[in-house]
Amino acid sequence: MRAAIADGTLPVGSRLPASRVLAAELRVSRGLVTEAYQRLAETGQVAGRGRGGTVVVAAPPAAPAAPAGPAPRGGPIDALRALPCRIDLSPGVPDLTAFPRTAWLQAERRVLAGLTAADFGYGDPQGTPALRGAVAGWLARNRGIRADPGEVVVVAGVAQALGLLAQVLPGAGVRRVAVEDPGSLGARQQLEHGGLDTVGVPVDGAGLDVAALRASGAGAVLLTPAHQFPTGVVLDGERRRELLAWGAAGGLVLEDDYDAEHRYDRAPVPALRALAPESVAYAGSVSKLLAPALRLGWLLVPRRLHEEVVEAKRHADLGNPVLAQLVLARLMDSGELERHLRFVRRRHRRRRDAMLDAVARHLPGARVHGAAAGLHLMVTFDGADFPDTALAADALTLGVKAHPLSWHRISPGPPGLILGYAAGPAAEIEEGVSLLGRALRTRIRDQRR
Length: 449
Known about the structure:
Strand order of the largest sheet: 4-11-10-9-8-5-6-7
Mean pLDDT: 92
CATH superfamily of the largest domain: Type I PLP-dependent aspartate aminotransferase-like (Major domain)
Distance between the termini: 21 Å
Number of helices: 15
């Protein structure tokens, strides 16, 4: 019946057969038909009209048509991103409606007015001196990192930074990289696509387990110490000291500082790069601050890897587009980017609070992780025995996107969801979590049968 409603065989407004009649036609019990109607009502697809019977009131989102070209590459995240939905609670996206269009346009006009004809030629593959200087200043002010502009390599986001590192690390004798478990599936895929082997290292309430890292035999480790993805844990002081000692003994730390600027209920956490520049490769971007579409980020590596990384960047794309670099540099130097950060931080905090309230109301028993900072929450359903992929699929049939936690796990663990709250208004967050609650109740009832 769901399929018939979805494909229009039972259009919105049509009346379903009486339960007694359908039961006789299908030769099943009337109770079974009644239960089916009840489930359709719980998902908002039908409604009782008294003597008017049961009527179709909404169709679920139609499955997307098969693409004309190849299937989406990159795994489940890319596939999910391509699907239509009404409410997108996927993690990793800021409030794109807040992009500072006026400030960007004004900065672009000023930049264009000052360019010479020669400035439109090929740029420095390492990045324009203006942006490298601006990034150095930004990192000093916001992340406590003291870096010379010559150390900065401008990249097309953290994804490219990881891809470049995957190219140069084998030359430094590193072919196995430890990753956080749970940790970003996308980041792990970047390293593996570059030919590196990855091994999971557990994350607990204090962050990455450094003892397990030592036992893994990895020559490098990728981690998110300021706001671990997806748990939100901060790497604590003792673990930091242990990790830096591991780095000083020859290990390489790959620090993904993906959303450290977004914090609400705690003080900023210093970047590891600020403490040990010769054993930490540091990557960041404006994807969570302005917009992923800009594809602008930065990479700082130990001196022994710098020339190889610049050479890999040269062969990758000859450098990022110059105009966008110069506009971003102007926003950073003028203080406009800090003003934008203050504005979106207030907005994101309100949306975070709205999601916390909605989770408390609609997902009773769910445990919330990582609420003090970032752009997402992780919720776990401790003790539940259903697959979180099934819950996410149920939510998608109701028009809501969310990441199942298991996508980002290597080892098994409790089911959960990763819910982004930055991209949509509070009313949309409330509705989305309410629909998740509906899917959860149905899933739990089905598991008990």
